[in-house]
Amino acid sequence: MSAATQENKELNVDPHEIDKFSQLAHKWWDKNSEFKPLHDINPLRVHFIERIAGLTGQKVLDVGCGGGILSEGMAEKGADVTGIDMAEKSLKVAKLHLLESGQKVTYRCVPAEQFAEENPETFDVVVCMEMLEHVPEPASIVASCAALVKPGGYVFFSTLNRNPKSYLMAVLGAEYLLGMLPKGTHEYGRFIKPSELVRMTRGVGLELVEMSGLTFNPISQQYSLNNDTDVNYMIACRKDPA
Known about the structure:
alpha/beta, 8-stranded mixed β-sheet
């Protein structure tokens, strides 16, 4: 194993994933680009978080923030937001967009595990959306999120279920048939079943509060939150206040 490979393994980073998003970094805020789905679902994600945990006046961490779409959405609701990511090009775009939007978000290029060691039990809310399926060790990210949130605070995750339907819709459909995402965006073997994710969260002291599916209607071209967790889903967890 090369030194670079060992370093990436220790950092829980897949260099191919970082490179993939770095190549698209300049398109993060183009609502008609490959990131259109993220812009379309962002109001639903923000509403889900706000309804359960509240955002106004809350200290919030966005793990795997990318170009800052969700970070800015939460900042607009009055949250004090910090975003972390390992793709420097994406973070540069996120910082530049603040000049246009006028929002206030603090961005840092740092691994979640290191940030958790430096800032234990610091945040009221921690969110990690569309990231777990892109790292070698998702359980390590879940543990870091649990360490970062204050007792009694909330942690939110979203990812992709692993079953034939999700492969058909999220990979074949979204990437190859509809062209909603670049080919190769997702690796099916890294998708995570809800039961697996809930087991990870319970193992680090997070209790499930709510689970919601996120579906796309190709006829209406609209996304909605519902009980269908077969493909995309989000969970809200709470850390034991004791």
